[in-house]
Design a protein that fits this description.
Blueprint (H helix, E strand, L loop, with lengths): L6 H14 L6 E11 L2 E6 L2 E6 L20 E3 L6 E12 L4 E11 L1 H5 L8
Antiparallel strand pairs: 1-2, 1-5, 2-3, 4-5, 5-6
Length: 123
């Protein structure tokens, strides 16, 4: 079998570029979903607080995929519709920055679910 020696650098370069940028894995994160003021969003789960959006600054891709919150299972803490609920989000994260980088979807959970989870802070 003949090997094209000119192709080896190209193949090696391709393999190195693939391994240098590993694909981000989608994961499910569940906890307190906070929207205290306009464009400010974060999720607090067992691993800490994850930034989703900051007014006038960072905004995760797919932020429109945050589930619509049912008022019966949502606590209003500010004028308008601002407050928090319990939710699971399907996301990609940046662990070093403690940020959610992409939201694929999610679902609201009953408040009781987060209130009774010993791994979550009390609200």
């Amino acid at each position: 079998m003949k090997i094209n020696l000119l192709a080896i650098p190209t193949i090696l370069s391709s393999l190195l570029s693939i391994s240098a940028f590993p694909a981000s894995a989608t994961e499910i994160r569940c906890g307190w979903l906070h929207n205290p003021t306009p464009a400010n969003w974060y999720l607090t789960d067992k691993d800490g607080q994850w930034t989703i959006g900051v007014q006038g600054g960072y905004q995760a891709s797919g932020i429109d995929n945050i589930p619509q919150m049912n008022e019966k299972e949502y606590v209003k803490t500010n004028v308008g519709s601002y407050g928090y609920g319990c939710a699971c989000l399907e996301v990609t994260v940046d662990r070093k920055k403690q940020r959610i980088t992409l939201i694929n979807g999610g679902e609201q959970l009953p408040l009781k679910t987060c209130r009774e989870d010993p791994k979550l802070p009390k609200n």
